[in-house]
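re: that chain from earlier
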Amino acid sequence: MVQRALKQHGRYAYSAITARPDYSWPGRRRLAVYLGFNIEHFDFGAGLGAALGPKSPEPDVLNYSWRDYGNRVGVWRCLQLFDELKLPAAAIINTALYDYAPEIIEACVKRGDELVGHGHTNSERQSELGESDEKVLLSFCREKIFKESKQNISGWLSPWISESLVTPDLLAETGYRYTLNWCHDDQPMQLLTRTGERLWSIPYPQELNDIPMIVARQMDGSDFADMIVDNFDEMLRQSAAQPLVMGIALHPYLVGQPYRLRHLRRALKHLKEKQRKAWFTTPGAICSHVAGLN
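^ sequence. v structure.
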């Protein structure tokens, strides 16, 4: 029996991280660190959403209101913590927030945070859209954010990391410079698109991410904070050999809970204590830096 060749995505070729050109981040640092702060809004009585308890028939008040705690309380506690530690963040936002709680986005903009497109709502999967509707979504989010916040955004994270076969192509064609959807590497790299336009993939974590760790694997806040510390210390060690990117994916309805916030504070303070060894930045700045090297 002849074994078939496996299907390929055609977006990048294999490359071992130990056999690539060397470079450094600004200030001759070797590790770039960013906070991916996911701020989301959901349909009431319909659609997708992370769950605290067993999903109930709609309206699922328990799980909806638990997520809404993030926008009413958790997001403000987290922003206070970022201010306290003087840490920049990438605010990864659903545009539905402009209708529901625009003051959240205003606070992020006032802090100087980078805004990143994250669909209109996390109640829907982008991958379920046809190509023309997906292109409309990508264009709408860029235009909405520019109109309301005056940021010409360059980055995208799909709701639920859901892509169609043409999502990278459409991102490049609608003016995005980078995507956070692919978690296949610790360095930025370019994805191939059908028109040849450049689209960068900036590493975004699915392990160092509070949803899969706390919701799916039922890890407590202390262990998640230990993960952040251990990941940072190990990547600092590894970055002696290669420049690396470490993202930390956070959702305010999870890490904004008081008992988890205490542990997040501990972890981020540990990182800041070693700030001379790492570049604390945003994914957009990472993208600009590597694009300037070519």
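Residues 154 and 176 are 5 Å apart (CA to CA).
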